[in-house]
Design brief:
Helix content: 40-55%
Distance between the termini: 10 Å
Largest sheet: 5 strands, parallel
Strand content: 15-25%
Structural class: alpha/beta
Shape: elongated
Number of strands: 11
Order of helices and strands: EHEHEHEHEHEEEEHHHEE
Length: about 230
């Protein structure tokens, strides 16, 4: 299911937009001001951001500028104004498109679907890359590249293989011996406790708070698993 973030301070409008999108099988979250919207957009792994211009705390133009410095997620700006200057300014800051209130449900959903499809063609269509996304984590399997909240994270060969294996088997618990066999191979010699070391190093790189991991969970007395509740998307 595709995820859309609505950044809109008018609760009534935000709820109507959410209803339109949820009726078309989108998963939707809402932020009511610019600063919280910016934080959520950078950490939520969304497929598109519906961004109002007039926001408290941090206006939509500033949010758009800051987002474009970090992520490439499609941004559809929303405004009650029809002046071309706002449209030009928003697009110049990196927005993908512009929609003026009031708009019809069919127009909103069509624009959202079109921009998500376009982004997927641009980023994935050329090489048919296998990409796993969960929360703010993006794992490009073929290119062996990892991004967290839009920022590339450098992993060692083993760290990548360990993360890839767990992500491809979400919500399955593996003990240290099983992971040692799967990642290091049957011919590998050594203590399976090395798995714990690599898990810890991996968490330091991909987790916002390694002491409270959200991607790679410890199941006490059993092993480790990749958190499927984040919503694994291929």
């Amino acid at each position: 299911m595709k995820r859309v973030l609505i950044i809109e301070d008018d609760a009534r409008i935000a709820e109507v937009e959410r209803d339109y999108l949820e009726a078309n099988e989108f998963e939707v979250e809402i932020a009511s001001d610019g600063r919280s919207g910016l934080t959520l957009a950078l950490s939520g792994g969304f497929d598109l951001i519906l961004l109002d211009i007039m926001l408290p705390g941090l206006n939509g133009f500033n949010v758009c500028k800051k987002l474009r410095a970090e992520i490439e997620t499609p941004i559809l700006m929303v405004s009650a104004k029809r002046e071309d200057v706002d449209k030009i300014r928003g697009l110049g800051l990196g927005a993908d498109d512009y929609i003026v209130k009031p708009f019809s449900p069919s127009e909103l959903t069509a624009r959202v679907k079109a921009h998500i499809a376009r982004y997927e063609r641009l980023t994935g269509g050329k090489s048919n890359e296998h990409v796993i996304r969960a929360g703010g984590l993006e794992l490009n399997v073929d290119a062996r590249r990892v991004f967290v909240d839009g920022r590339e994270i450098k992993l060692t060969h083993l760290e990548f293989d360990l993360l890839n294996f767990l992500a491809q088997n979400p919500n399955v618990v593996f003990n240290r011996e099983q992971l040692f066999e799967k990642i290091w191979g049957l011919e590998a010699l050594g203590d399976s406790a090395t798995v714990t070391v690599h898990i810890n190093r991996l968490r330091e790189k991909i987790e916002g708070d390694p002491s409270r991991p959200k991607y790679i969970e410890t199941i006490w007395g059993a092993g480790y698993r990749f958190n499927a509740e984040l919503g694994i998307r291929n």
